[in-house]
Amino acid sequence: MAIVSMLVRRFNSYYASRPVLTTMITNAVLGGIADTVAQTLTAIRQRAVRKGGPNRDDFFAIEIHDLDNKNPLNEDLLIPSSLGLPPPFDFERLTRFMAYGFLMAPVQHRWFSFLSSTFPLKAGGATGQAMKRVAFDQLLFAPVGLGLFFTFMTVAEGGGRRAVTKKFRDVYVPALKANYLVWPAVQILNFRVIPLQFQIPFVSTIGIAWTAYLSLTNSSDE
């Protein structure tokens, strides 16, 4: 708790002096953590398959295998069951995720500030205002943000217009459906309870699992 308290004080201090830069660095670090999680899951899965499938002593491989097979949002496996060796850690992919988080932070900062000023939480009507923020966020920002994510990643990987179109055709709709299963509930809590300066870090922290999912989705057709 002492460490958490110290980190919160440091973050508040940096945010007070340079809010956008602080958010950019925080987003980049959390995006890097998320992609590391995604690459680790892929390595565990492929190592288990190379050994002939998950055995009963390999708890993590079994859980990953079962969850992937039960995934209702993608026809194909998110984590490929290749019989080859697990891929080496992709530092270029990690850099792309960190860069995306870094560059999107100013956009998120302006958007959250807009929502905060447009729908202020007033006594007696805070829940209704928070719901309006969630509606605006999920109906306007979420579809656009997801499109920006897949476009950025595809272009950063060297793809052109055809590759971007293919990415949207193959994975955009399943990812958007997954977004609506996860983020409305998270954003209700975020807008209703979390102070403004912590809203983007809160989203990014909760979003480690989500960004890991996007990382797997983005690379699933490779």
Automatic annotation (TrEMBL):
<protein>
    <recommendedName>
        <fullName>Integral membrane protein, Mpv17/PMP22 family</fullName>
    </recommendedName>
</protein>
<keyword id="KW-0812">Transmembrane</keyword>
<dbReference type="Pfam" id="PF04117">
    <property type="entry name" value="Mpv17_PMP22"/>
</dbReference>
<dbReference type="InterPro" id="IPR007248">
    <property type="entry name" value="Mpv17_PMP22"/>
</dbReference>
<dbReference type="GO" id="GO:0016020">
    <property type="term" value="C:membrane"/>
</dbReference>
<dbReference type="GO" id="GO:0005739">
    <property type="term" value="C:mitochondrion"/>
</dbReference>
<keyword id="KW-1133">Transmembrane helix</keyword>
<comment type="similarity">
    <text>Belongs to the peroxisomal membrane protein PXMP2/4 family.</text>
</comment>
<keyword id="KW-0472">Membrane</keyword>
<feature type="transmembrane region" description="Helical">
    <location>
        <begin position="139"/>
        <end position="156"/>
    </location>
</feature>
